[in-house]
Task: structure prediction
Amino acid sequence: MAQGWGLGALINLDHYGHYIHWGVIQVSVGNFIVMVLMVASFLAALFAPFPGRRNRKGAK
Amino acid sequence: MTKKPFRPDVDAPVYKGPYVPYDIIKEGAIAVLVVFILTAALALVFSSPDEKAVTIKTWSNADAVDFAQTAGDELAGTSAVANYGAPYNNNGTSQHWGFLSPEKWIGVRIQINTTNDFVIDPLSAQPAQPALSAALSQWKSASSATQTAWDDAFNKAEPNLTYSNGKVNIPTKAAGPIPVLLNYETQMARSGALDQALVTQAGFYTTNFTKPLLFVSDGTYFAGLAEKQHLSGSQWGMMNETGQYPGQAWLWLYTFWYQIHPYSTSASADFLVWGTMMILTALMVLVPFIPGLRSIPRKIKIYRIIWREHYAAKL
Result:
C-alpha cells in the first residue's frame, strides 16, 4: 500500500475475510465473487451478440 | 488413390460459408485498454494485501514461550524440520507413491542440523559472555548420552515453560545448560540478532531465508496466524489470500485434493497431490489424441451456441 505517497485504498480489505462453508468446501467471499464474475463472463461470451453484427449482414 | 474417410475429431472440413472482415489488432488494442483501466481502477479502490512479514523477532516478541519451546525442540532435534528427511536431513521418511520417491532420489541438498544451525552456531557467534560461554562449553563437551538426558529433562518440563521479566523459566534442574542456552537464544531472537545470524550464515548475499523460515515454521505461532487467515492446507488455503482479497481461485483443484481421503491423511500428501495433478495435466495436454475425450466438445455442441448465426443460416 502506498502510504508513503499519501494514498491508500478507498476500500480497505486488510481485515479477516469471510468464508462460505458447504460440507468439505470452503471458499472466501472474495474468491466466490471472482468465480461468479468468471462464470458470468463465460455466459456472456456464449449468449451476448457479437458487436457490429448488423454491419456484417450479407457480407461475403 | 482411395479417398480417406472423414474423421470428425481429427480432420477439418473445408469451410464453404461466408467471410467477413475482422480487425484483430483493433480488438486486441481494446482488450489491453479495458484491462489497463480495470487494473488501475481496482488498484485505486482496493489497493493490495499489506501483511507484514513474520520474522523470528516478531514471533519471539509476540509469543516468547512458543519461541523458547520451539528453540528447545530444535536443540533437542525433536522438531518437525529436524525429522523431516530430505532435502534437509536423513532423519525422516521421504514422501513417496509406491516406489516413486523423488525426495529420496535427489537426497539431502540443503543440509540442516537444527541443533547446530538454529541454536549452537548462532549463540557461538555472539560476543563472549561468561554464562553463555560456559553453557556452550558444557553442551559441546558433553557426550551425546548426556545431551540426550538433558533433552529428555527439557522435554518433560517444556509444557510448563514460562516467560517473565525477560527470562525463560524452565521448571527443571536436570536440563544441564539448556535453560541458559534458551535464555540467550530468546534474548537474541527478541533483539532481531537471530534473524540476522540465520540469514548471514547462508553466504555473502543475504537473500537466502531458508533457515529463518524453517525455524518459524516449527513454532505454533506462525501456524496460528495462518489458521486465522484461512491459509492452512485443510482450509483450502492454497487458493486464499490474506485479508478479504480474492486469491488464486484457479488453484481450486490443486487444493481440493488435500481435503479428501486418502490425501488428507497421508504423510505423502504433497507428492500424491502433485502426482495426481501431473496425470490430470497430461490428460488435458493430450486431449486431441484421446478418443472419446476429444469428442466431448463436438458432442456437447457449445460451439453451436457461439456460432449460432452461422448454423442458423445453414438450416
In short: Residues 29-47 of chain A form the longest helix (19 residues).
